[in-house]
Amino acid sequence: MVNIPSVAELRERIDDLSSAIEAQKHILRGLVTQQSDARRQLNFLLDPMARIPFELQSDIFLQSLPEHPGCFVYAGDVTQPALDSPPINLMGVSRLWRDIALATPKLWAEVVLESLPRGSKYSDLCRIWLDRAKGLPLSLTLGGSLKLEKSVLDLVGQYRHQLENLSLILPLDDLLDVSYPIMQFNVDEVSPLSSLKTLTLEATCTEEMTNVTIMDRWLDILRAAPELQSCVLDQVWFEDENDLLEPLTLASLHELRLGQPYSWVMVGNSASSCAMLRYLTLPALKSLDLSIVDIENEDLFALFSRSSPPLESLALAIPEEWDDTVVISLLALLPTLSKLKLCVSPQDIAHYTPFLDILGTARDTLPNLRNIEFWTDYPLTIDYDKVLRMLDFRQKSCRTPLESFALVFAWQMRDFSSDLPNEQVRAGMRQLVKNGLSLRLGPLSGDSI
After folding, report:
1. By its UniProt entry, which InterPro entries does this protein fall under (predicted)?
2. What residues form DSSP beta bridges with 272?
3. Fewest CB atoms within 10 A around its CB: which of 18, 240, 310, 393?
């Protein structure tokens, strides 16, 4: 007779089996954990990276970063971090590397946002990225069109007190409407960009522009960043019809570039207005590049007189109406200058032979000058004998010997050989090179001497 278990016995049996299964699962989980630990120990023995202290591995990650480590891309309807840029590619190597990347805030402190799409999902990804920086100073580059994505602008506003480096590379239309895209802050707010050290604003446009932006708004942006050290404006022009603008002193600014002086002379683009210099005092300025001088000589002279900057580097596209006396008077205000780049239109370069004479005599007002560059379209009426005398004097008789001299032309001309110095001058120049002078005479592309 078959003994049929009762319902209560079957339920008890099922409970016993369930308990046994759970016990075996617990044992299995323990075995899996032990296996994982054993593999980790094996990797530790086999992988030299695993034996490096956590802090040192983090530092190695930071040393391996490219110039711009953080970048988001937009493909179709999907916005995602670029998989080939750190720290994303570092996180994909192993769990250990992922943990190190997530625990290294500085890896996430710089991000490049290109081709901004619409949608809040994009700004959410950016916020996750920037939150991992844990309050560190941020470097942010925005490209594309900010008018397409207000949520990204709001994100910039949220993190603006952390911004240390900000670069905006925008279509012309975005820069024209300065009240909208750049930074949404109340001008009465105290130092809304208090951490900003470098600011770059570049219009992605090569066409000629005049009177397109409002001066007081741009001065407000600079006024909001009292610790600003470097400022670059390219293809930014000002409308200045207000004589009541409040002057501004930027006590920490040591680098200011308004366009590319050599590019303006050579190809006629990459320029910016310098009208705002009327309102600025720059007592710490060490480097100044001006592609267009659209103010009176007196305004530029007044800037240097009231600022008394320790200027070391000057790159200047010479206006056609200037002659050598204006240049000499200007440079007399800058005795600390060590690097000088003058970009001159070809029809005007002959005007500067008196300037070369001054450089080659004891009347020189630039005792610290070490590097001189002349850029022009193509060679015309260049007195190489005067060039050689100036170079020889500065290398042998000046307290600070000249280190380099360059005379650069934009185009390689078929008859360029006829514009070279004669053999006697070339022999003198070769001797100066043997004595340590770096010398370049010739076209921008092609052979030089």
Report:
1. LRR_dom_sf (IPR032675)
2. none
3. 18
Q: What is the rounded CA–CA span in Å between residue 127 and residue 121? A: 10
Contact assessment for residue 374 and residue 405, using Cβ atoms and an 8 Å cutoff: no
Residue with tokens 């899996």: 32
Task: Please report the sign of the dihedral spanned by the C-alpha atoms of residue 188, residue 190, residue 192, residue 194.
Answer: positive
DSSP tally for the chain: helices H, then strands E = 14, 18
- pLDDT at residue 379, as a whole number: 59
Question: How far apart are alpha carbons 13 and 96 in whole angstroms?
Answer: 45
Both structure tokens of 335: 């005795």
Instruction: Categorize the per-residue pLDDT at 350 as very low, low, confident or very high, splitting at 50, 70 and 90.
Output: low
Report the C-alpha gap between 391 and 109 in whole angstroms. Answer: 47
For residue 47, give the 3-state DSSP assignment.
coil
Task: Give the separation between CA 306 and CA 308, rounded to whole angstroms.
Answer: 6
Domain ranges (residues) in the chain: 320-325+341-449
pLDDT tens digits along 114-130: 655 555 666 677 788 88
Q: What is the residue type of 289?
A: D
| 211: Cα separation from own chain's centroid | 25
Residues near 55 by Cβ (< 8 Å), separated by ≥ 6? none
DSSP at 5: P
CB atoms within 10 A of CB 320: 10
DSSP state of 350: G
Q: Is the pLDDT of residue 246 over 80?
A: yes
* Residue 4, token pair as written in the block: 């049929």
Q: What is the bridge-based pairing of β-strands 371-376 and 404-409?
A: parallel
Q: List C-alpha distances in Å: 152 to 72, 142, 193, 222.
A: 13, 9, 17, 21
**DSSP states of 379-438 as a string?**
--S--HHHHHHHHHHHHHTSSS---EEEEEESS--TTGGGGSPPHHHHHHHHHHHHTT-E
> Collapsing DSSP states into helix, strand and coil, what is residue 29?
helix
Q: pLDDT: is 169 or 52 the higher one?
A: 169
N- to C-terminal Cα separation, the chain: 115
- pTM score, whole prediction: 0.78
- The stretches of 47-119 forming alpha helices (DSSP H) are 54-63, 88-91, 95-102
**Structural contact between residues 251 and 244, judged by C-beta atoms closer than 8 angstroms:** no
Give per-residue pLDDT as tens, 400-430: 888 999 888 766 554 555 667 788 888 998 8
DSSP-derived secondary structure letter, 377 = S
Query: In this structure, are residues 362 and 390 in contact, taking their beta carbons and an 8 Å threshold?
Result: no
